[in-house]
Specification:
- It is built from three helices and no strands.
- The chain is an all-alpha fold and about 110 residues long.
């Protein structure tokens, strides 16, 4: 019983520490892009998240995470393609990495 109580306390403490960070980071990003005060954006983000979760349930949250993952992977691939094109192509990229010692032939 003591272990279960201790584990519940640790989980609650970790959640209390983690939750403000999860709300503050998007509010800070919106503040940097829009210039709106963080203290105004934070409750708005919290309200949207709570409303979205209550209306759509966990299924909506999971689908949002899936969509976010697809977008993030797609953007990373596009950044790699754009960077390769800006350098001068795949051949130039491989040549520069080979000369600088970042690539090694397998033994």
């Amino acid at each position: 019983m003591q272990t279960r109580l201790f584990a519940s306390f640790i989980y609650s403490f970790a959640t209390i520490i983690w939750f403000p960070i999860v709300i503050y980071v998007p509010a800070l990003a919106l503040n940097q892009t829009t210039g709106i005060d963080v203290h105004i954006i934070t409750p708005a983000i919290l309200a949207v998240c709570v409303f979205y979760t209550c209306v759509g349930g966990i299924k909506a949250v999971i689908w949002t995470d899936v969509l976010q993952m697809i977008i993030m992977i797609g953007v990373m691939i596009l950044i790699m393609i754009k960077g390769t094109i800006n350098v001068g192509g795949l051949g130039v990229l491989i040549e520069r990495n080979w000369e600088s010692g970042r690539l090694e032939a397998p033994e």
